[in-house]
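step: validate -> pass
step: tokenize input -> pass
step: predict -> running
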Amino acid sequence: MDIVYIRELRVDACIGIYDWERKIRQQITIDLEMGWDNRPAANTDDIAYTLNYKECAKLVAAFARESEFQLVETLAERIAALLLTEMKLPWVKVSLGKPVAVNGSREVGVIIERYAKDIVS
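step: predict -> pass
step: emit ->
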């Protein structure tokens, strides 16, 4: 399986469990690794066979901006499900970081991997 990736997609979102977090927007970072067979695109040099990573980024950014989840775990799960279903991916890895969550750290977060075969319709 080939991988199409997006690194450090930055989005301002409402995320967190504390009252003060519910009143502000915090910047989160999202890294995506998306399973895709790049051979048809490479063999034909035709963009029609590629995974539209710009559309993936727009979809994820809009979703995260509009969300109001408390947990990064929940947001990561929903992003994975969104990409698997909307972009018809066989596999996705979502890394979601919250830079201001722990004093003294650059960032904390979660990394999840999900497969289309595991999505319940």
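step: describe -> The radius of gyration is 15 Å.
step: cleanup -> pass
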